[in-house]
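Notebook B, p. 112. Complex prediction, attempt 2.
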Amino acid sequence: MTPDGAAPDRPRADRLWEVFVRSRRGMSHTHVGSLHAFDAASALLSARDLYTRRQEGVSIWVIPSAELTASSPDEKDSFFDPAADKPYRHPTFYEVPEGLAHL
Amino acid sequence: MTRQTSRNEAPAGADVATYALGLGDDVLVLAQRLSEWTARAPQLEDDVALLNIALDLVGQARNLLSLAGGRENPGRTEDDLAFWRDETEFRNAQIMELDGGDFGRTIARQFLVSAWHVPLWDGLRASTDPDLAAIAGKAVKEARYHVGYARHWLVRLGDGTPESRRRAQAGLEDVWPYVGELFEPDPVTERLVTAGAAPDPAVIEPVWREAVEAVLAEATLAVPPTVRRPTGGRRGVHTSAFGPLLAQMQHLHRSHPGASW
């Protein structure tokens, strides 16, 4: 047995991965979902088959879900509410040129 | 494939039709076998992956059968060819129709066939027949992904647990005898090779063999000995597994001729 209690030569098919897809050049990678895979290589193959079969992307990232550090729902008030009454943080004095996509 | 002026005479339409029919039946029948994994693959991710491959193959089959039927006189549609021919009229190589068996055999067969498709489509892109060249240009990209997927799994199974290794080796040995048929010379192919319309199987075989042996080594699997070479698919001789496959594939269309959705 390995330290984490798994049988030594049993592949860990239950490992969860988060998938990020960049829809086209110049755009950011966007989280699209998650999947189960043994390792990074198989996660990438599965991500291609599950999330880009309708031409959704030109680039894929996969990240082990366990490696993500997320903010806690309990901290929602202290994290996000203080921004609610600070409209001066929005750049409202600029004119947005017409036809400018993806600002 | 090098094109020379002396080889550049247009290939006979009947030969192109026969050739496209064989390659089209290959991918149609293999797609049908792969689709048997629907909702039965080891995990959801591979269920989708195998079906994606099957759908790629169906797309290739539609192109090839349309081409074959269109070159006949009188012509036949892709549906006429797929659903209204009987067993002895199918021209697929026998390796395509073999029962998928377990996941090990399915992956072994997919790897061997996709590793053949890659140099085949790649060579066919330079065909003097523009329709064949166009179909191959699309198919080669798909085949490169298929061989990558199958290679990944074959290495994982072969170099995996004792059980996965046993199944991968057994699957490989089940399908191995049938690869010889893919490289067999026949008069139609020879005429097309002479006309610059098809790649020479004798050129493809060493390319295939080198690629396959490298991956088998990586997968720590043994290259099976060639003890027998069954053949005949291209002449309409098929194995006992083929009839039930066709029955399932054709039954709905034959029960409701002309139906659409």
